[in-house]
Amino acid sequence: MRFATLRRQGLVAANRLQQRSMAGGPIPANYKVKKNKFVEEWNGRREITEKTWDANPETVLSVFFYVLVLPYGVYSLTRAEFQSKGDRRYKDCF
Is the dihedral of CA 48, 52, 54, 59 positive or negative? Predict the structure, then answer.
């Protein structure tokens, strides 16, 4: 019984030592997070982009260009340069 009492008191003391305050105390009211209405509006618009985006011919054409044509163009130019220079990296691939 004495052992249990000593053990319990030791645990209570250990818990007191482990409780720490962040940088000397609680955060003052003037340091609390203040919401910016423009940032909140931007986040809301970002979440509903799929509902507000229109798939008209102009946007589909620009998506097609940036997703397929531009990367393939960079790839073909890089590959052509490696072929013309006889670079080791090109020879290792084939």
Answer: negative
